[in-house]
UniProtKB/TrEMBL annotation:
Name of one Pfam family that matches: Methyltransf_11
SUPFAM superfamilies, per database record: S-adenosyl-L-methionine-dependent methyltransferases
Keywords assigned by UniProt, alphabetized: Methyltransferase, Transferase, Ubiquinone
Domain Methyltransferase type positions: 54-105
InterPro entries in the cross-refs: Methyltransf_11 (IPR013216), SAM-dependent_MTases_sf (IPR029063)
The organism's place on the tree of life at top rank: Bacteria
GO-annotated molecular function: S-adenosylmethionine-dependent methyltransferase activity
Keyword Methyltransferase tagged: yes
Species whose genome carries this gene: Actinomadura rubteroloni
GO biological process, one term: methylation
Keyword flag Methyltransferase: yes
Lineage summary: Bacteria, Bacillati, Actinomycetota, Actinomycetes, Streptosporangiales
Protein name stated in the entry: Ubiquinone/menaquinone biosynthesis methyltransferase
């Protein structure tokens, strides 16, 4: 059952804290954080590793400006399909990962509501692990779980028109309208929704 993503002020939400622990950063790690879009998690990584290089600036994540085998930890979130051709991106992440390092992917597999107000066609865990294997990665650990979170903080980075469409879509579902896969409900007068995540740790073959 999904657990509400309640946090103390300044603390990471449950799904991000879970990703941080799953990544298992250590003080000697040189980390590449690709398209994170979450300064809180990047800052938390910086507190645990030797150095974090971010790849959030505009550019092609399928052609990273780093030499082969440069990083002991490579993190990528939140969605391969939003960053480019998924298999090509996985191959590029593996290219910059040291032989004894690991790539950690955080992928939404359900509950990704797009700016149009419709559910995105999420990947399944099986499809995700199959894609990784086909791209040349060796799968280590997998963590699949659900996280329930308040809608308004998630919409804070979305333009007002798109945020309005998403809110209306989820409210219609609460009232018995079309199902989005986000399982919205009202808690204490606030609209919440549920996302299903898969965290996968992989290494070069």
């Amino acid at each position: 059952m999904a657990q509400p993503a309640l946090t103390a002020r300044g603390a990471l939400p449950v799904h991000l804290r879970r990703l941080l622990e799953f990544s298992a950063p250590v003080p000697d790690d040189l980390c590449l954080d690709v398209a994170g879009g979450c300064a809180e998690l990047t800052d938390a990584l910086r507190e645990r590793v030797r150095r974090v290089v971010t790849a959030d600036a505009p550019g092609d994540p399928c052609s990273l400006p780093h030499p082969d085998r440069s990083f002991s930890l490579v993190t990528c979130r939140p969605s391969l399909r939003s960053l480019g051709e998924p298999a090509a991106l996985v191959r590029e992440l593996l290219r910059v990962c040291a032989p004894d390092g690991r790539v950690v992917l955080a992928e939404l597999v359900r509950g990704d509501v797009t700016a149009t107000g419709h559910a995105a066609p999420g990947s399944s865990v099986t499809a995700l692990t199959g894609l990784i294997a086909a791209a040349g990665g060796t799968i280590g650990r997998v963590d699949a779980f659900t996280a329930e979170r308040p809608l308004d903080p998630w919409l804070a980075r979305t333009d007002a028109a798109a945020a309005g469409r998403i809110r209306r879509t989820l409210l219609r579902e609460v009232d018995g309208g079309p199902v989005t896969g986000a399982r919205p409900r009202v808690i204490g007068g606030e609209l919440w929704f549920t996302q299903s995540w898969a965290h996968v740790a992989i290494r070069p073959q």
